[in-house]
Amino acid sequence: MELKRLDQFTWEIPRHGDMKVPTIIYSSSQLVEGIKRDQTLQQAKNVACLPGIQRAAYAMPDAHQGYGFPIGGVAAFDRDEGIISPGGVGYDINCGVRLLKTDFSEKDILNVRSKLLTEILQEVPAGVGKGGVTRLTEQTLREVCARGSEWAVDRGFGTKQDLLYTEEVGRMPAADPSYLSRRAVERGLPQLGTLGSGNHFLEIQKVDQIFDHDIAHIFGIHEAGQILVMIHCGSRGLGHQVASDYIRLMENAFGTKNLPDRQLIYAPLGSDLGKRYYKSMSSAVNFAFANRQMIAHWVRGVFKKVLGTAEGMDQVYDVCHNVAKFEKHEVEGRLKDVCIHRKGATRSFGPGREEIPEGYRDVGQPVFIPGSMGTASYILVGTPEAESLSFSSTAHGAGRVMSRHEARRRFRGEQIKREMLDKGIELKSVSWKGVAEEAPQVYKNVDEVVRVSHETGIGKLVARTVPLGVMKG
Amino acid sequence: MKYRYLEHTADAKFQAFGQSLEEAFQNAALATAGLMWDVQAIALKQTQASEVRGIDLKQLLLGFLEEILFLLDTRRFLLGTVESVELIEGHAGYSLQTVFRGDIQSGQYEIFGDVKAITYNEMQIQRSAPCLVQVVVDM
User: Each residue's pLDDT tens digit in chain A (473 positions)?
Assistant: First the structure.
């Protein structure tokens, strides 16, 4: 397969064979070597073959091998001729990141850091198979899926202001929980308000460096040393089940022949099954929004208890990393309604987009790119250039470079904990083996990922944060 | 050897073996559970029966392994062994009836991994003895 370098940070797989559009990859000399070794390029090429795809299939700087789409895959489809694919959203629907600012500085929390983490670990259920604090009724769960963060705020978990500072205002209106399977509902029942496990985490961070003071200020980030809280989690088993359910339903309806990859099964956007998937996926998106809303509320409660106040702990923003949704984008010189899939990618709307909160509309939306557990994370801002470069999308994280198996052979959780403490980071977790699997060394260099984003202009650097305390699920 | 794990950067990949397809499926279940907890440490106190269907063997295998995730999320059931597996081939596909044995998690076991989903990526099924199945799971 031909991989043509267009400039320092852009590669292209020119249109050939069944491809309907070219594939564009934003990367660097260093990062591109990694994706040549696995199935990333083949998967990104497969996406370019899907019906109704517009302009190009894109791969973000953190792209790596996924299921169907690569992780870091972005594609937009025509409303009438296009498709929707569960493999273009991923299993963890609306896996995303929420960032809270605080008015505390590093010195305010250093002595109570351990207590904060212990209390958070008590308040926020984490780990595999760990149930939530509230056992919901099926009726309530469906309401959560219909209303997302709105449901949580109505029940006292957070403020109306939080909703304004959440992508989609915390609720995808297309959600129709009546299309959720019995199994999806059953898996969701014990899991609302839980962090989960794997790469999910909650971090107390401090601002390490500010690259753009004016924009940082608008996001509520004022100086180095300021404390922030980052929450990274998704829709848990409910979302995984929605993906599995619809892959199966689409296979049964359309068969598995003629697909370059069975994980890339899709349904036409206009078909009954396509619509049902969209409504169910939206329900899972809402579940994840409510999940992060509740966790954020409990974190504020802990800060209030330990530090006496949670004043100023406003939400900077909440972004989705795995989602499909309808947006207007420029295609062949005119604005067009498309179904955009972002799988392991963050929306990066620039100034002026009405979807972003009024307070940010002059500068663009905040984008959060978490590093691995214990390393730096970044705050970026969406740009006007991203519209034509990537349908307003950028990277979402670091991406693994070492298998879990290998990580467990090489590292011990207790040793990772000590190493992190030497660097000034306190770690709490429910499983040491889990910590070893997520050791900072197993991830790609997130610095290089955000550098590509900044240099290409698909998301510009605003600030860098480093963790002081990590709770790993 | 019942199963072995293979290198996979982002997630996990394994091969499971058996003299029959049922046995290979059974071992694939143990390999899946082994990514999350120590299967041998689980007391065999409870049983869970399940039935899955598939339009083909791959869909059947995927659905079968997904049962383990479903039982974990909904019943906190940790699989220790697979007591029986019965594969039935029909006109419109396959069905599999299984009895799992294991225990209910109430904090006594360490769960160290989270399998999000079973995928078709690189999935292989070799029907004739010695049977083999290969699976990649999303973690």
Answer: 899 999 999 999 999 999 999 999 999 999 999 899 889 999 999 999 999 999 999 999 999 999 999 999 999 999 999 999 999 999 999 999 999 999 999 999 999 999 999 999 888 876 544 555 566 899 999 999 999 999 999 999 999 999 999 999 999 999 999 999 999 999 999 889 888 877 788 999 999 999 999 999 999 999 999 999 999 999 999 999 999 999 999 999 999 988 989 999 999 999 999 999 999 999 999 999 999 999 999 999 999 999 999 999 999 999 999 999 999 999 999 999 999 999 999 999 999 999 999 999 999 999 999 988 778 999 999 999 999 999 999 999 987 778 777 888 888 988 989 999 998 999 988 788 888 888 888 888 899 999 999 999 999 999 999 999 999 87
3-class state of residue A202 by DSSP: strand
Contacting B residues, span 55-94, partner chain A, CB-CB under 8 Å: 55-56, 58-59, 62-63, 66, 69-70, 72-74, 76, 78
Q: Which residues of A are catalytic?
A: 396
Domain count, chain A: 1
Q: Which of B12, B63, B110 sits opposite A405 (nearest CB)?
A: B12
Is A99 a domain residue? yes
**B110 vs A: CB within 8 A:** yes
Contact B12 A251 (CB under 8 A): no
Q: Decide if A197 touches B, using CB distance below 8 A.
A: yes
Residues whose CB is less than 8 angstroms from the CB of residue B122 and which lie 6 or more positions away in sequence, other chains included: B13, B134, B136
The whole domain housing A236 covers: 4-401+443-472
Q: Look at B110 and A433 and tell me if their CB atoms are within 8 Å.
A: yes
Cβ separation A64–B9 shorter than 8 A: yes
Please state, in angstroms and rounded to a whole number, the distance separating the CA atoms of residues B119 and B131.
Answer: 20
Q: Report how far residue A300's alpha carbon sits from residue B20's, in angstroms, rounded to the nearest whole number.
A: 55
Q: Which residues contact A176 (CB under 8 A, 6 or more apart)?
A: A146, A279, A280, A282, A283
Give me the CATH number covering residue A459.
3.90.1860.10
Kindly state whether A35 is in contact with chain B, defined as any CB-CB distance less than 8 angstroms.
no
State the Cα–Cα distance between residues A302 and A200, nearest whole angstrom: 20
Phi then psi for residue A178, to 5 deg, are -70, -15
Residue B31: exposure state from Cβ atoms within 10 A (0-12, 13-18, ≥19): buried
Neighboring chain B residues of A186 at a CB cutoff of 8 Å? 70, 73-74
Residue A322 included in any domain: yes
Q: Is A449 helix (H, G, I), strand (E, B) or coil?
A: helix
Q: How far apart are CA A262 and CA A251, in angstroms?
A: 9
Interface residue A392 vs chain B (CB under 8 A): no
**Cis bond before residue A357 (omega within 30° of 0):** no
In angstroms, rounded to a whole number, what is the distance separating the alpha carbons of residues A32 and A342?
Answer: 20
Count of all residues that appear for chain B in the document: 139
**Chain A residue with the nearest C-alpha to that of B34:** A405
Of A360, A318, A67, the residue nearest A170 (C-alpha) = A318
Q: Return the CATH class of domain B3-138.
A: alpha beta
Domain boundaries, chain B: 3-138
